[in-house]
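Page 37, top half.
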Amino acid sequence: MLDQLLRKYKQPARQALYRAIHGVYHKNTSTLKNEIPHIRPLQYRRYYEAYVQIEEGEFEQARASAAQIAKPWMRYALLSEIELKSGNRSKAIALARETLRHCKGLQRYLVYKGYELELPEAVA
């Protein structure tokens, strides 16, 4: 599936975004780190940078990065992931529901599918 997208969309920034999404889905932070410098727009780059910080256990730095993101669904998604990794499942569920409330389209689909796997209570 990823190969089909990469063949269809030739723009480097678009390909980097698709590879980043694929890296997140497969929990491959090394792929994600390689793609981050090529991601545009800047909000998406910051989002994935914060995601890497979360995966590396740098929660306070990730919170600061999340605070700089203007899109509410991105901010809530990151904060939910921080709470989940910190062991605060109930707060993570509340933030996940807030994320779903603020996103639509492809982002909503991706977020919903991710929460189906990691936080099924949030989508119930």
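Page 37, bottom half:
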Amino acid sequence: MKTTGTAVDAGVRAVLAAPRGHRFSRPAAPLSREQRLLAQMRGNPRVERRLRQGELPLWMHIQAERLAEQGQPVRSTPSPQPARAPRPRPAPDDGPPPPAPEQPVRPKPPLPRRRPHSHRKPSTRWGRLLTAYTLAVGVGAVAQHLVTALY
């Protein structure tokens, strides 16, 4: 059967005129069951943490199982505390705190003087080394003078 120059639908022309890779629309990927449940549980603090930081690592699940076997309570993320209702009747500690007893004001001791040149304690090693070298040179000079006087 031969086709003749009949009018082509405008939608077909738009598809054929589109650049390669953009000719056909891709259907949206359906949400997985997990994603649908997470979307429903948006107010839960654990779900909010999971959406922010990702899924908990495997070792945390294993530790929770171990603690459950031992009968210890499993720590969870703290949930926000609801606002407290006012007390139904006044309690003895409801007033302002009692005044603190008067204590005499003592002047602070003066700060210790600081050495202006360095923040470290001066080393005594250099003084000892300088003294040892001076003594060695002096003893050597006297010994040389005595040895040359003997010849």
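Margin note: The mean pLDDT is 77.
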